[in-house]
Input
Amino acid sequence: MKLTDESLFPFGKYKGEKMQDVPATYLDWLMSTPWIDKWSDVVNYIDDNRAVIDKELQNNGALD
Output
């Protein structure tokens, strides 16, 4: 199933939150975890929205 901004995050700290409301820092961190491949829908969402996530990280100083 393809996740959209309105889809609910499926696990963990932000379970039940809309994907668009999950912080970019959390989504970015997820990509560094060894188990994220189990959640291919989440990986695909992050990949599809990488430019938006990176812009949010930069605006929040996370990429300085």
